[in-house]
Fold this protein.
Amino acid sequence: MKKASKNVTGAIGNTPVVCLDRFTDYFKVSGKIFAKLEYLNPGFSKKDRIAKQIIEEAEKKGALDKKKPVLEMTSGNTGIGLAVVCAAKGYDFIAVMSKGNSPERAEMIVSLGAEVVLVDQAPGGIPGQVTGEDLALVEKEVENIVQKRDVFFCGQFDHEGNTRAHEIYTGEELWEQTSGEIDVFVDFAGTAGSFTGCARALQKHDKKIRCYLVEPKGAAYLSGQTVTRDGHKIQGGGYAKELPLLEKERVCDYLQVDDDDVITMTRMAARLEGIFSGYSSGANLAAALQLLQGKEEGKSIALLMNDTGLKYLSTDLFKHPPDQR
């Protein structure tokens, strides 16, 4: 058994992998889904990994100062991860996020002792549906804070520490935990850090592993499609913008998933497998099911269950009619 850690950052990573056999049996598909339960990190998402990596890399470079707060723009999960890491290490933290994100995440960040700056959505914005236009307003507020205050800005969309966290740890863990029995890796496009990092790690071991990038239907910008609906419900990604961390040469193909399928897959993971996760995890499952029903029939697919469903209790993700409760 692992010995006591100096602080909670020692509990980040080494999350378990489980086979979703009841899920594949229910949908009558042949093949395997290996799900890595990233919601079992201390901040309940995969973003704890990049928070730890970015802060510890900055410490090694001498870029951090206890008098200087850490700043990040976030949909919530990276903010929570940074709030966890900063609390454990004694840094002040400021999270800037859109009001369109689920309120549970902002409340968690505040509860962890950090400051949250909530930015209004663009005119006509719908709570629970954060668009690229909403994200641009968050970026503008971050720029204002950087000009006014002496801060350390993380910048998860550009920081290579985001990719390294998943290349060094997440991807290597997946390979070891599955004994290399991976044909396919699928990942929903947020910052693309987990996609690129895991793809790098897995393809180091086996160049034949096929890596698919998942986008919302109607907002498949990265695949070159015209964006017709950027107001999707899959929080934490699908922003219809370029992602500097995405290594496009590692994408064997792009997949699209719609809101209804994502919600259904997320609910079915809870009911069939006891895995209580969020929207982007459901997006990964919907994409995996597409592949097992089609060109990757009978193959072994690895994916991440990115965060916990507890962060979405105020949304329609887990709001069921009375006869289903």
